[in-house]
């Protein structure tokens, strides 16, 4: 079990560290997601570990003719089966608890962590020297051109942007260097909302977090701006001081996720996916007992046959 657990932890860490390297997760989220992933995997790893453990143990007894000696001393095979079942039943109960109660809780926590990570600001998680791309469909996407003006500049009617409902939003960010005091050097940001395209580049900048506000602020110096709109002329500008609003998104509820639903609710559901998830949770303790019983005949070997 320990070997399987180490292999699985290494596999999970490699996946989450890849996302952390891309700025999608921080260190704390990687650790928590890995631990939750291990909790979820225990319902599969423990039955497999029991099966191989029984195979190895009983196979050794057959190879060393210990089973023959035990049978000669009056210990029947049914008694050995009872011993195996006695060992498997407590483990099956543990696995039932993991599958029925721990599994939905762990998935709920996983979805919440993912939601918080996705709601975090793009600039706050960006790594220097690599492109960072995000895509999402917003129910309401507000362009911030009305606030993205140089001090003293007069706002034009086009800078008062209306909400765009259901538009796909894509943002690509590149920062060449981030100093120790979190100052940004050589910034490139391309934002596409529907058919509108905005490209901003700047020599230096600072990211100002505003935890209680609707937006974080990205202050850029010596910025160059290109904006293309679907129903009007393109905009090209060079601004000494340019402020962008970066939406301070709140974590959204994960919605209906089958794996996070309580087992009691799944038992009453008629949806095929819900029924499949319910049957999986119920089957894991039964599978544990079946694997333990299956290990008894599979571990048999003839004298001098080898393992």
From TrEMBL:
GO cellular component terms, A-Z: ATP-binding cassette (ABC) transporter complex
Record-linked InterPro entries: LptG/LptF_permease (IPR005495)
Major place of residence: membrane
Keywords assigned by UniProt, alphabetized: Cell membrane, Membrane, Transmembrane, Transmembrane helix
GO biological process: lipopolysaccharide transport
Localisation: Cell membrane
UniProt KW Transmembrane helix keyword: yes
Membrane topology classification: Multi-pass membrane protein
Chain segments carrying region Disordered: 143-166
TM helices/strands, residue ranges: 38-59, 80-102
PANTHER family recorded: LIPOPOLYSACCHARIDE EXPORT SYSTEM PERMEASE PROTEIN LPTF, SLR0882 PROTEIN-RELATED
Name under which the protein is recorded: Lipopolysaccharide export system permease protein LptF
Species, as recorded: marine sediment metagenome
């Amino acid at each position: 079990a320990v070997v399987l657990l180490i292999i699985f932890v290494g596999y999970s860490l490699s996946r989450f560290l890849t996302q952390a390297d891309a700025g999608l997760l921080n260190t704390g989220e990687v650790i928590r997601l890995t631990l939750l992933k291990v909790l979820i995997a225990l319902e599969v790893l423990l039955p497999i570990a029991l099966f191989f453990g029984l195979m190895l143990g009983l196979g050794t007894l057959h190879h060393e003719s210990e089973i023959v000696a035990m049978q000669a001393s009056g210990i029947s095979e049914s008694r050995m089966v009872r011993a195996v079942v006695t060992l498997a039943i407590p483990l099956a109960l543990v696995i039932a608890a993991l599958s029925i109660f721990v599994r939905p809780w762990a998935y709920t926590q996983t979805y919440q962590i993912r939601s918080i990570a996705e709601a975090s600001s793009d600039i706050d998680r960006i790594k220097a020297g690599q492109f960072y791309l995000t895509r999402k469909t917003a129910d309401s996407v507000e362009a911030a051109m009305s606030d993205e003006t140089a001090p003293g500049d007069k706002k034009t009617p086009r800078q008062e942007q209306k909400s765009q409902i259901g538009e796909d939003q894509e943002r690509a960010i590149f920062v060449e260097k981030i100093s120790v005091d979190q100052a940004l050097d050589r910034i490139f940001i391309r934002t596409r909302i529907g058919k509108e395209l905005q490209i901003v580049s700047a020599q230096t900048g600072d990211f100002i977090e505003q935890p209680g506000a609707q937006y974080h602020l990205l202050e850029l110096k010596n910025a160059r701006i290109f904006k293309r709109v679907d129903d009007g002329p393109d905009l090209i500008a060079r601004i000494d001081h340019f402020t962008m609003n970066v939406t301070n998104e709140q974590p959204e509820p994960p919605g209906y996720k089958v794996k996070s639903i309580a087992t009691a609710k799944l038992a009453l559901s008629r949806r095929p996916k819900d029924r499949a998830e319910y049957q999986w949770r119920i089957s894991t303790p039964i599978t544990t007992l079946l694997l333990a019983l299956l290990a008894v005949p599979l571990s048999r070997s003839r004298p001098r046959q080898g393992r």
